[in-house]
Design brief:
The chain has 19 helices and 23 strands. The protein is of the alpha/beta class and 593 residues long. It has 3 domains: 212 residues, NAD(P)-binding Rossmann-like Domain (Rossmann fold); 199 residues, FAD/NAD(P)-binding domain; 149 residues, Rossmann fold. A 6-stranded mixed sheet has the order 3-2-1-4-17-16, with helices on both faces. Strand 21, helix 18 and strand 22 form a beta-alpha-beta unit. Helix 6 crosses helix 7, helix 14 packs across helix 15 and helix 16 crosses helix 19.
Length: 593
């Protein structure tokens, strides 16, 4: 048995937090410290997710649990290479994991790319999100913009530019930046994607979301009709585009958006400023196309900075392993490049954690001081989690009534607020609302299917509540649970999210497939169902839980109570929603006896 280790994770975004979750499960007694150069945790979720997508940002509640309940330490305002070297961190911690993400926008490598009106999507997203280390100069977009990319980030930028001020209700957008933009908003956007509609990297749901914005006319000159055997996502994408161009914007058209698929940039042209962009057809021999534009926005992904990275040499992506050196690992985009969603970073973190665990057979740790081995000066400047909570409270209190928070765009200001007079920060656990009528001998098994981790949060909070009431309960990911384990003497509580076009999350797919293929007789099996979704996506809201419910009922299982519903667009913590719902389920159980 290896003595408790000391882990350092560099970067507090999704990759770092997911890794800390996995490590904490395997190493419950070890020190885990998450370092970040900023005074705030959560990285990409806070500053990279578009400010009007609060349901995506709600995953911060899951990550907050690490610091509030899982004994993971946050050390903000400590910059690698400035306050502490990588070599020093490796000398005081047993294992160091790099989870810094990628911030450098990938370049187009075409003539004219360095003209002053060529902007990068990463910088714009950080600007609208009030990133404290981002230059606050407002871009001069002009009336006509060409967005080159085609993926979800490019759709984020498109959406931000065509929305009206009232469309940012309950967001955390930087109002100073927003106000400056609306002094001269864009009136025409050319959206340029290298791939055709079948292979475009955009999420059909995000394309469909554009149709909710009033006063915008959508045009698409590319072929839209696909064969019936085209991939499901491609058909959904084509359907979303058809619905966009069918929208009647009315008489008051504020902006037009023209979608171009199958075109790649050849050059950006202009004398001292952007005047147009020349495109070539990727898929056929159509003549080149030249589009007038006052500015260009590139959104073609992110890349490594290049050069010697803190003594490790020049790094690039590695899909096979997170190992960099003995006791040194990496995860997330910093491991595999800018591919995949936030949810995919969770799978990557699990794989790296398994690599770390698997290496311990040959690991011979020396005594390491951990975080306490840093100099007193560095530790004094660090923003710990209690200091962050002070800053978090200040942001919420400073917010206007129609904003979720007001982020401060100045790093020194944030640190000053965080380092104010210390106050006691306490975490209020989820209230125990479970019914006292429950059967004391009833076995309860909680099963969750999740993509980003919200269902797992709800499962753990619900389990804590049940345990506090003296009941035994087990929690399992559906991906690790066999249908052969379903038994009549156990009450199953399933918590299931929805993914993409109303699909089951990845961790529930095999369970559902096994039910469909084996078709076991589930007579006598009782279950309760709780669905997680987002009412913003009306057509697909809660469909994951519905599919699972229908399949179980089809095979003879009996549902107890109504299907619970959690809306990620609400401000209610998912765990509290699950606990409140389950109290009603227990009343149903008690009433049946």
């Amino acid at each position: 048995m290896i003595a408790p280790l000391s882990f350092a994770i560099i970067g507090s975004g999704p990759s770092g937090c997911y890794l800390a979750q996995s490590l904490r499960r395997s190493f419950p007694e070890s020190e885990i410290v998450i370092y970040d150069r900023l005074a705030s945790p959560f990285g990409l979720v806070r500053y990279g997710v578009a400010p009007d997508h609060q349901s995506t940002k709600s995953i911060q509640a899951q990550f907050a649990r690490l610091f509030e309940r899982e004994n993971v330490d946050f050390a903000g305002n400590i910059e690698l290479g400035k306050d502490v070297s990588l070599e020093e961190l490796r000398s005081i911690h047993h294992i160091v994991v790099l989870a810094t993400g990628l911030a450098a926008d990938r370049v187009l490598s075409v003539p004219g790319e360095n003209l002053p009106e060529v902007y990068r999507a990463g910088r714009l997203t950080r600007l609208f999100n009030a990133h404290p280390l981002e230059a606050s100069e407002i871009p001069k977009f002009g009336k006509s913009v060409a967005i080159i990319g085609g993926g979800n980030v490019s759709i984020d930028i498109l959406r931000l530019l065509i929305k009206q001020p009232e469309d940012f209700l309950n967001s955390d957008i930087d109002d100073a930046v927003l106000g400056a933009y609306f002094q001269a908003p864009v009136s025409h956007i050319d959206f340029i994607c290298r791939s055709n509609i079948v292979n475009a990297p955009s999420d059909p749901v995000m394309l469909a979301e554009l149709g909710r914005i009033r006063g915008v006319q959508f045009i698409c000159n590319s072929p839209i009709d696909l064969s019936e055997d085209a991939p499901r996502a491609a058909l959904a994408r084509a359907r979303a585009i058809k619905e966009l161009i069918a929208i009647d914007p009315g008489a008051d058209i504020r902006a037009t958006v023209t979608l171009h698929f199958g075109w790649a940039p050849v050059s950006i042209n202009g004398e001292g400023r952007v005047q147009n962009v020349e495109l070539r057809s990727v898929l056929d021999d159509r003549p080149n196309l030249r589009l007038d534009a006052d500015s260009i926005i590139t959104a073609i992904g992110f890349d490594f900075d290049g050069g010697d990275w803190h003594g490790l040499g020049e790094l690039d992506a590695n899909l096979q392993t997170g190992v960099l050196d003995y006791g040194l690992y990496r995860t997330g985009w910093f491991k595999r490049g800018s591919r995949g969603t936030i949810a995919e970073n969770r799978l990557c973190a699990k794989a790296v954690a398994e690599e770390i665990f698997g290496s311990l057979a040959s690991f011979q740790p020396l005594m390491r001081p951990g975080y306490g081995g840093l100099s007193e000066e560095v530790r004094a400047k660090a923003v710990d989690y209690s200091a962050w909570k002070r800053l978090d409270s200040a942001e919420r209190n400073a917010a206007a009534a129609d904003r979720s928070r007001r982020k401060f765009p100045n790093h020194e200001h944030m640190v000053a607020i965080a380092h104010n007079k210390p106050t006691q920060i306490s975490f209020n656990p989820v209230p125990n609302n479970a019914s006292t009528k429950q059967e004391k001998t009833m076995k309860i098994q909680i099963l969750f299917g999740t993509e980003s981790g919200n269902a797992e949060i709800a499962a753990e909070d619900l389990a804590d509540s049940i345990k506090n009431d003296g009941q035994k309960v087990e929690v399992n990911d559906l991906s690790a649970f066999s249908i052969s384990q379903l038994q009549p003497d156990t009450m199953y509580v399933l918590l299931c999210s929805t993914y993409g076009e109303g699909e089951l999350p990845n961790t529930a797919l095999q369970f559902y497939a096994d039910l469909s293929d084996v078709r076991p007789d589930l007579s006598g099996v009782r279950y309760a169902m709780f669905g997680l979704g987002d009412t913003f996506y009306t057509e697909t809201y809660g469909q994951g839980a519905n599919k699972l419910d229908h399949k179980l009922a089809e095979l003879g299982a009996q549902r107890v109570g109504e299907i619970g519903r959690y809306d990620a667009s609400s401000w209610e913590p998912v765990g509290e929603a699950a606990v409140a719902w389950f109290a009603g389920v227990l009343d149903e159980v008690a009433a049946s006896h």
